[in-house]
Amino acid sequence: MTEPTALPSYPETALIFGGSRGMGAATALRLAARGTRVAIGYVANEEAARKTAEAVAAVGPEPVLVRGDVARAAVEMVETAREALGRIDSMVFTAVPVMVGRVLETTREQYQRAFDVHYWGTLEAVRAGLPDLQDAKGSVVTVSAMGAFRYARYYGILGPAKAALDALVIYLGAELGPKGIRVNGVSPQLVAGDADHADHSTGSGVTGRETVTVEIEALDEIIDTVRKRTPLRRLATRDELASVVVSLLSSDYRYVTGQVIQVDGGYGLLA
Predict the structure, then answer these.
(1) CA 20, CA 63: separation in Å to the nearest integer?
(2) Phi-psi category of 258—alpha, beta or left, where left has phi over 0 and alpha has psi -120 to 50?
(3) Which one, of 131, 159, 27, 15, lies nearest residue 74 by Cα?
């Protein structure tokens, strides 16, 4: 007869890139409720960061705010978070630059921005945090999107950039496994009510230092089509997606690495 399983444990600390809004904020709240002290990484929206920090503090340990652009200052953000937290046990990457359109219309600047955020910034942050992650036998979770492996006409350069991020999960999972570090990803489809990310809806956002407004053509039609096509007949909520991120960070998934989990209500099951 096997021993009864223990309740899952969660990281003592976590640095969340893109943690001030959307799925990043939902992840911060879930982690804090489980006793994790989080560092909320954000680019420029101090009001959103403060509101998220207040909500996090209401359910768990006092968080810290780390302002910076992961595409340009990943190492500095890790160092700031380490100084405040003492050690970084885990990292979550939910940051996304706000840009949409057809891939043929991509400019060099947009290409560079997308890959700097999703690939280079992620890699730099993980490398900077390696001593802590190894010491804690920690975990990294990235957030991708269905546009990484399935064509979405509004997604443009973000699709290829997210695909590179998914490949990075595989390679980091293989190379960091011997150090006891797990690396996984979560790949959602559309998210219900998420107006903070351009890969999900229209809205305003920050790409580097400038704020831009983007619009997705026929957004309502796209959402309705995806909802009807999804076997569960609805879109995911940010909290549902965050629950998967937090689970991957927990001890329940200590033998899982290098995986990108599709959290899409069964959307990807259909041809």
Answers:
(1) 11
(2) left
(3) 15
User: Cα–Cα distance between 259 and 206 in angstroms, integer?
Assistant: 29
Token code pair at residue 2: 């096997």
The secondary element (H helix, E strand) that includes residue 154 is none
Task: Return d(Cα 168, Cα 146) in angstroms, integer.
Answer: 16
Cα within 13 Å of Cα(25), Cβ side: 17
Mean per-residue pLDDT pooled into runs of 10, the chain (271 residues) = 76 97 96 98 96 98 97 97 98 90 91 96 98 98 89 85 97 98 92 48 30 52 81 87 97 97 85 61
CB 155 within 8 A of CB 214: no
- Strand extents, DSSP E, 55-209: 64-67, 90-93, 139-143, 182-188, 203-207
Distance CA 137, CA 153 (A): 40
Reported as type and span, the H/E element at residue 46 is helix 46-59
